Amino acid sequence: MDPGTGSRRHKQLTSGQDTWSARCDESRTAGAEGGLRETTGGNTGTAPAGLPYKAAWSFFDKGEPAAEEWVADQARKILLGKSAQVAAGIRRRATTYGYSPAERAGADEAARYLDNKKDYLGYATALEKGWPIATGVIEGAARWLVKDRMDITGARWGLEGAEAILKLRALIASGDFDAYWRFHLRREHERIHHARYRDGLILAA
User: Fold this and answer.
1) I need a labelling partner for 187 at 20 to 30 A (CA). Which of 76, 145, 177, 199 fits?
2) Angle at the Cα of 19 (from 14 to 21), degrees rounded to 5?
3) What's the mean per-residue pLDDT of the chain?
């Protein structure tokens, strides 16, 4: 509970700036306002925006416009590799405003997750290299590439057979099967006729 206002809403400076964000020296990223929505379903704790939402409902009432702006701010910092700073800021805010253990439960959960998973939150590196950072790509691949083939009625798989099938499905899905098949035929030819080859060269008769 905010001791100054008697509500859960955050204190404001006379200029209207959030006192917590005023202590942070990062500049805002243009064009980010209004771009985030709370994740529904699944594990929101792994999403850059989903985690701050867990803390936001300790600091804001449901539906407050300021909550989304605050979440966007924290998500940007997480994407920039500043998860430790976000975790510390969440705890500092909850302590400064005297929230009860029940009121700050979501905030503590989010901060704890950020601390425990800091070695796996390399979003800045992933963004720099163009890697996907959302779980949808992985979940979709697991469902379509693996489950739709492996989970058919009556199927029983050994490890080697399942791996071989999944490799073929991956090659077909990626459009690389034709190139792979040419490579496969070449290697099979070398394997079957290995006596004629040395260092990849055909020996003279």
Assistant:
1) 145
2) 125
3) 76
Give domain limits for the chain: 19-129, 136-202
Look up residue 47 and give its DSSP letter: S
Phi, psi dihedrals of residue 201, rounded to the nearest 5°? -110, 145
Q: Does residue 135 register a pLDDT over 80?
A: no
Distance of CA 54 to the CA centre of its chain: 15
Alpha helices in the chain (DSSP H): 19-22, 50-59, 65-79, 83-96, 105-116, 123-129, 136-141, 148-150, 159-174, 177-192
Length, in residues, of the chain = 205
This prediction has a pTM of 0.51
User: Dihedrals φ, ψ of 202, to 5°?
Assistant: -80, 125
